[in-house]
Amino acid sequence: MGEFITNIFNAFLELMRQFRAVDVLDIVVVAFLIYSLIKLVRETRAEQLVKGLLIMIIAWALSSQLNLKMIKTLLDNFFQFGIIALLVVFQPELRRALEHIGRTKIGTRTFSVAKEGESLLQQERKCINAVVEAAASFQKSKTGALIVFERQTKLGEIVDTGTIVNADPSAQIIGNIFFNKAPLHDGAMIIRNGMIYAAGCILPLTKNDSLSVDLGTRHRAAVGMSENSDAVILVVSEETGTISLAINGVITRNYTRETLKGALENEILPDVAEDGDRRPIFSSFRRVKKDEKK
Known about the structure:
- One of its GO terms (molecular function) is adenylate cyclase activity.
- The chain has two domains: 2-102, no CATH class; 114-280, YojJ-like (1.
- It contains eleven helices and nine strands.
- It has a seven-stranded mixed beta sheet with strand order 2-4-3-1-5-6-7, sandwiched between helices. A two-stranded antiparallel ribbon has the order 8-9.
- Strand 3 (188-192) and strand 4 (195-201) form a beta hairpin.
- By secondary structure, the protein is of the alpha+beta class.
């Protein structure tokens, strides 16, 4: 027993002699990647898929130990194409992960003079005020609306499905676009850098089956867009006039004029530094308590 402990201790000392400072960085990076992967899986429907995969791996190990040749052969053939199958099954989650990496601040800072940064901030404040005023009007008249605030993820493919407007924002223009007899009222409006950039755009619908059956196409399109980008999507229900926001795949409802303005400012307004760099705020938005009825 003493010799066994001595051998383990000597092996540990030998390992420590070979340990380099760069190995610490290697371990930290790998640990962070594993943590990020687990966090990504837990936040999506991939959690159930991973559980199923783990069950199959356990079944393969047991079949190997118990010499269950038929089961082992079937699982061996399955795992031969496992990587391709994982890429197909987890395609939405992998895309979301890569987009999330692309939203980091590395290489995304836009250098400009302080005056330009302040001008952009004022433009976005003006846009938020116009959207809030229009949404409050839509809430009273029960006019349906779908407005997308573009952030880091560019929505060029979504813009291509609609019509370029590139107009200075105002409650009147937004009201005209979503007037129920206007040609662009059924689609989504895209806000880019505080400007009404496009309208009549088609958004991808969410595949989340856990959403309330009371949510219509506009709400499902808003959630779908928020799942595929970091955009902030505002929805006004045509049936009830309820104002909702979709961010990162989560929809919160029952906003008032005041709470809507606060939430949009918190999510969209950049933090303009003294040198004029634009740094978007990625703070978590405050959830608004859902009422039991739409």
